[in-house]
Structure formats: structure tokens, C-alpha cells
Design brief:
The structure is a single chain. The protein has helices at 17-26, 35-48, 59-69, 90-94, 113-126, 145-152, 206-216, 239-250, 252-270, 298-301, 305-314, 343-349, 361-375, and strands at residues 52-56, 77-81, 98-102, 132-134, 160-162, 170-171, 174-175, 182-186, 199-203, 276-278, 285-286, 292-296, 320-321, 336-338, 350-353. With 377 residues, it is an alpha/beta fold. The chain folds into two domains: 17-249, Type I PLP-dependent aspartate aminotransferase-like (Major domain) (Aspartate Aminotransferase, domain 2, 3-Layer(aba) Sandwich), CATH 3.40.640.10; 252-374, Aspartate Aminotransferase, domain 1 (Alpha-Beta Complex), CATH 3.90.1150.10. Helix 5 runs parallel beside helix 6. Bound molecules: pyridoxal-5'-phosphate. Pyridoxal-5'-phosphate is lined by residues 58-60, 84-85, 87-88, 136, 162, 164-165, 186, 188, 199.
Length: 377
């Protein structure tokens, strides 16, 4: 019989989750909206120091409403990170926007500001400036937000950060996403903290958040009867899910510390293997280390990320290749890309290791031993 399965990034409940869910039940707010949702939003604003936010059914919904609020329309140009999960750009794709993907830099694996600058200069010459820039905070590492915002400011181009993976991440002394036009966060089940499913749109712009809240509740005008001047969505987070989120947000800093300890443990035990490299931490911030990611250079290592992944799977351990860059996705073949061959190279070597905060030393050691055995062959 094989040993117990080790998952990539399972939910970790150990605090007040059940207690708050019970409170939500007791109050009978078994619905979207309710006191727990208000509490989650307040708590999130206090934690991130971003003054306004709205709780939604997912990070994807948050991105959709951000783009709606910024007036993105069919044919508009959007510049986005290529090294990301598809939900960064699926709302833009649904809206009929034209997407150009921007490669990452080597020091952060997030959007390379120099490539962004070059592309915006080209756009200016061609006479079609982007309507929004969407950089991603990758695996818990913030993009270089100030550099990106400075490039966009002279043209008044809004920046919507996909910080779905970045709850608890720091950029300079701020929370990731703080200072952008808007930031998107996810509480999906695989993220550093979860509400079983949910997301938040946050901004310094109260109007943008109020409009998102209005659209998220079917765009109901304030009349006693149902009056509609626009078409909205059903995107509000349930009060029950928000209750879980409130408890999870209480332990976010502890979770980020635990994730960092997991990364450091892997690094201590694996970094001396030839051909193994770890995701770098950019000097401008502090990653939440959502996932520990390694690069396996098959020429130096004598094995590939895929062989290591299969060896781990055989021992009932889940690992994953890195996000496949968007410009390599069949669905985006027609999109332009500013390609510096960074994301595509990372994808050829990258493996995300199990990073659950409830992993024991023994669990970590199981993973390490298998990787060592494979690399030393
Ligand atoms: C998880 C994730 C999303 C989507 O969040 P959901 O809450 O699952 O909709 C978007 N972008 C990135 C980079 C993600 O990792």
C-alpha cells in the first residue's frame, strides 16, 4: 500500500473557520451578502491597507468586473503577462479584447517592465494604446508594480494586477496590489488561504468598487421594485464562504511564514544538486511562497521535470509543471507576444513542489528523497 497522498496545495483549516460558519448559520444569512461578507471586506481592507474592496464568487469574476468598470470593449487592446494562469485573461478574451502578451524577466518571473515599455512605445507609434495592463503576481511573488505603473502613468493606462496568488505578499512595504488601479485576489481552494471559492476586487477608487458591487448584484437600481438600466451579473460571495474567509485571513501571515519555511527547507536540501535552481525572490518584495518552484536543467541533472513529476506521482505525491505561457496556448495562437524566451524556457524546466502548510518534516523529506534519487542517477 502506498503512503498517504501529498497534495500540491490543499486547504488548511485549523482556526475559527467552523465557529464562524456556525455563526453564519445561526444568523440564517445563508445567502450572498450578510454580516460575514461585510466583515471579510472590512478585514481585507484593514489587512492590505487598500481602502475599498468587494467580495465576489471568484478571482475571475473580480477581473471581469475590474475590466467592466474600466470600460473595456470589443477590439480594445490589453497587455498582459504571458506567464500566468488563464483566468488572468479569460475575462478580457470573453469581452472581445485584443490581447498582447508580455514576457517575464529572470529576476522575478513576472512581467518585464522593459518589455512593457518597449511595447507601449510601439503601440504609441502605431496609434493604438492599450486600454489596460494586467501584470500577474506569480506563485506569490509580486510584479514590479511601481515600475509598471510609472510606465503607464504618462498615458493614463490603468493597471489591474492579477494578485490572485498574492494574498499575504509584500511589495516594498505595501501589500501586493496596493497602488494599482485595481487588484484581483482569489480565495480558491488551491490558494494560500481559501473561502472554498471566492475572490476580492480591491482599489483606491471607491467609484470603481461601488460600480463592481452594483454589477455583481444584477445591476439593480435603488428602487423598491426591480429596475435595470444595465445588465449585471450574479457574482456576490456567499455569506457562508465569507465566514471561512474571515477565519483564514486571520492566519495569513502565519501561512506565509510556513510557506517560506517550506521553500527554505527544500532549498537547503536540494540546492546543491547539479542542475537544480529555485525560483528567485526579487529584492523589492517578500513572496508569500504560495508554491515552491524549482527548475530542473535536464542536461546538468540527467533527468527532466516530467520524469521527476512521474517519480513523485508513483509515490502518491502531487506536483505540477509551471503555468504554460499564454502565448504558447492553442487558444491564443492569434495573439501577439513580446517574447524574450524567458517564460518559455522556465516552462521547459519548472516544477511546482507540494507546498501545503500542513506538511510535516517527514512529508517534505519524502519529496526531497525522491528528487535526490532521480537527480543522482
Ligand atoms: C487562481 C488564479 C486566478 C483565478 O482565481 P479564481 O478565484 O479561481 O477564479 C486568476 N489568476 C491567477 C494567476 C490564479 O492563480
Amino acid at each position: 500500500m502506498s503512503e498517504k497522498r501529498i497534495f500540491l496545495s490543499p486547504p488548511h483549516m485549523e482556526g475559527h473557520e467552523l465557529e464562524y460558519v456556525q455563526q453564519a448559520f445561526a444568523s440564517n444569512f445563508i445567502a450572498p451578502c450578510g454580516p460575514m461578507l461585510n466583515r471579510l471586506e472590512k478585514q481585507f481592507c484593514e489587512y492590505t491597507e487598500i481602502p475599498y474592496c468587494v467580495g465576489l464568487t471568484s478571482g475571475t469574476a473580480a477581473m471581469h468586473l475590474a475590466l467592466k468598470g474600466l470600460g473595456i470593449k470589443e477590439g480594445d487592446l490589453v497587455l498582459a503577462s504571458t506567464l500566468t494562469f488563464v483566468a488572468s485573461v479569460s475575462p478580457a478574451a470573453h469581452m472581445g479584447a485584443k490581447i498582447t502578451f508580455i514576457d517575464a524577466d529572470e529576476k522575478s518571473w513576472t512581467m518585464d517592465p522593459r518589455l512593457l515599455q518597449e511595447e507601449i512605445d510601439r503601440c504609441e507609434q502605431k496609434g493604438q494604446l492599450p486600454k489596460v495592463v494586467i501584470p500577474t503576481d506569480l506563485y506569490g511573488q509580486s510584479c514590479d508594480l511601481d515600475a509598471i505603473c510609472e510606465i503607464c502613468r504618462p498615458f493614463d493606462i490603468p493597471v489591474v494586477v492579477d494578485s490572485a496568488e498574492g494574498v499575504g505578499t509584500k511589495y516594498k512595504r505595501r501589500h501586493a496590489g496596493h497602488g494599482a488601479t485595481a487588484a484581483v485576489y482569489s480565495f480558491n481552494g488551491n490558494k494560500i488561504i481559501t473561502s472554498s471559492g471566492g475572490g476580492i476586487l480591491a482599489s483606491h477608487d471607491q467609484k470603481l468598487i461601488d460600480y463592481a458591487r452594483f454589477l455583481a448584484t444584477q445591476a439593480r437600481e435603488s428602487f423598491p421594485y426591480y429596475e435595470h438600466k444595465e445588465i449585471g451579473y450574479n457574482y456576490r460571495l456567499s455569506n457562508i464562504c465569507a465566514a471561512i474567509g474571515c477565519a483564514q485571513l486571520e492566519v495569513i501571515d502565519k501561512r506565509a511564514q510556513q510557506k517560506r519555511a517550506i521553500f527554505e527547507y527544500y532549498k537547503r536540501h536540494l540546492e546543491d544538486l547539479p542542475g537544480i535552481e529555485f525560483m528567485p525572490e526579487a529584492d523589492y518584495g517578500k513572496s508569500n511562497y504560495w508554491l515552491s518552484v524549482i527548475l530542473i536543467d535536464s542536461l546538468k541533472c540527467g533527468t527532466s521535470y516530467e520524469k521527476v513529476r512521474q517519480a513523485l506521482e508513483k509515490e502518491n505525491i502531487e506536483s505540477r509543471p509551471m503555468w504554460k505561457p499564454m502565448h504558447l496556448q492553442p487558444v491564443f495562437v492569434d495573439c501577439d507576444v513580446v517574447d524574450n524566451m524567458v517564460a518559455s524556457k522556465l516552462f521547459e524546466q519548472g516544477l511546482c513542489l507540494p507546498s501545503g502548510t500542513s506538511m510535516s518534516k517527514e512529508d517534505l523529506q519524502r519529496v526531497i528523497n525522491i528528487i535526490k534519487n532521480n537527480c543522482e542517477k
